[in-house]
Write a structure and sequence with these properties.
Elements: H1 4-18, E1 21-26, H2 33-39, E2 42-44, E3 46-50, E4 53-58, E5 62-67, E6 73-78, E7 90-96, E8 101-106, E9 110-115, H3 116-124, H4 137-145, H5 151-154, H6 166-175, H7 189-209, H8 221-224, E10 255-259, E11 262-266
Antiparallel strand pairs: 1-2, 1-7, 3-4, 4-5, 5-9, 6-8, 7-8, 10-11
Helix pairs in contact: 1-7
Length: 289
Amino acid sequence: MPEGHTLHRLAGDLTRTFAGHVVRVGSPQGRFADSAALLDGQLLEGAEAWGKHLFVAFPGERFVHVHLGLYGRFDVHDDVPDVPDPVGQVRLRLVRVDGTAYADLRGATACELVTAEQRDAVVARSGPDPLRPDADPGRAWERIRRSKVAIGALLMDQAVLAGVGNVYRAELLFRHRIDPFRPGHTLRSGQWRAMWADLVALMTEGVRTGRIDTVRPEHTPEAMGRPPRKDDHGGEVYVYRRHEQPCLVCGARVRTEVMQGRNLFWCPRCQRRFRPRTPTAPDRVTRTP
């Protein structure tokens, strides 16, 4: 599933390409046809992201709400000589009236026309987004510091923190040497502040480059004399999808385990098991030995 930096990058592409232009709006697949007809021939005002949600704004406080889910794609094509016929199951097509740009949405979990009130309701259910300047990390911290749920699960909860997915979850915890199974309420506020600042920097770089790179300069392929990582997600990472490969820092084998339906990756040596000073309650988080 695309992570938050992908949606913010997409919002920027849509805004640069279509904002201030009248657009033709269609639904070749047909599933968005009624709503597309209401927007066709209107001025596209811009696009913005909140976590993994995308909102494309039209006059009258109408918004196309998109959630890409696991398989969705929203491809933006600018400066084209002509607009080709749609290929495949295109849910939403935007075409600039001058015929020099178009965008096709396929496979999204959600594509719906919503009001400002409905948009605000989606945002209200979401945690703070590290890529938004108006984000309040304290909102996430209030949830984390009161929870006995593992921090590895809390980071993936979009109601706690918006936009963080499986890659950033694994890499952030590794970079801060935190056991993914450690209960949220055992973290210190200073640890959370450092994690938040790191997320802001990493995800901002992700928007700029379009990929997730989390390794520090001393662990790049050039610095270590190792081959670059080959993976369809791209980017240089410490633990994500590196099961049984040697940790780039300590050499221990990277571990993986399913947490809330997603594969979690961590280094058992760099991220040593958290052991509280006092016995935990019977409902403490468990992990595979």
